[in-house]
## 1
Amino acid sequence: APAAWERLACSYWKPLYVFLRRKELDHDAAADAIQGFFAHLLNRDFLRSIERGNGQFRSFLLTSLQNWRTDQHRAATAQKRGGNSPVIPLHEIDDVTGDHHGAANSAEEAFDRRWARTLFDNALESLHERLRNRGREAHFLKLRGLLTGEGAEPYANIATDLGTTESAVQQAALELRREFGNVLRQEIRRTVTAESQVDGEIRYLLGLLRGR
């Protein structure tokens, strides 16, 4: 269980950090709070108190953080960055220090937007690992811009770089999008409690990523 929670913390701390920044905590205070929160989950017999419900995991995790902050006594429970429980990859925190700014109208919306981005990034990394294991990392690196919308090259240029035809690149791009959709679906499936919730969660999160 502790190892599982540590993996969970590394996957999902960023949306919580963004939420706290929107709640007007400064960078260090938010980082300390996130570190303390996950240390609290790991140091308490927390899993035994969880009952399988009908909600999304993102809502459960956010509520747990809010309850923890309400219950804690700052002087007694503050966790220092780099302390005895290095759950969060703290060297990555500076990568998201700007995420608390933007168009979101509330801390909760900022949390949801960063949650959507985190799931997207997790799925992208999972797909990268899959294709690396198949010996197709070069194709992934050339085509990933089609998924992220960043720096996508014309098919003709990609075909030249990979030593293949433009039609082969088009087919590879189609397959990449299809497989990414499956990986993203699997990622989201792990954060809900029923299969019937998956499609609605996908629509909601993709809408956030598209700025709707």
## 2
Amino acid sequence: PYTTLFRSDGSSKNIRINNAVIDFCRRNGISITDGDNIEIVNAFISNTQGTMPMCGIDIEPNNNKATINNIHLINTITFNNSDAGILIYLASLCGIEKKDIRITIKNHLDDSSDIGLNLIAGYKEPNKTNQSFSGKIDIINPEWKNNRISISASNNKWGTKVNFKNIEIQNSKEDIQKIKLNLSNRVNVFIK
């Protein structure tokens, strides 16, 4: 039983989207900028184009006050999006407050988006002003095919663990073993 609650701080809580079909959006199919307990199940998001970032789903907090907790993307299909099928961009979450992040992406299929999954942890170095993150991002049973780049991941110096399990890539232009080696050389990234 999910209900939509908008907290006084502007974040969303207890949101469930089921069986969405989203096509030809100008910016993103779905943007998650601040939320706790968000579940998106069986979504089909395609042909996003027009103005950046042009992703199927964009998890991108606006500032350090945002919450990105218990975000679940299950059985998501993204197709032919101009940038990424799914983008996780955490740079704006950097700041004074230490953040605990929980994201699970299970059974994501991307076909023909420019990038299957783009994971950008953040540009600023952790220091007294910019606290590191805790928590984890689990990416389970992804399948990326016909992408220019299947997976793009920046070096994660923030403390959030990123776990990949059962990666499947169908792209004749990319060396799957090289991709897995590159991912496993990232800080706090684990491949099973």
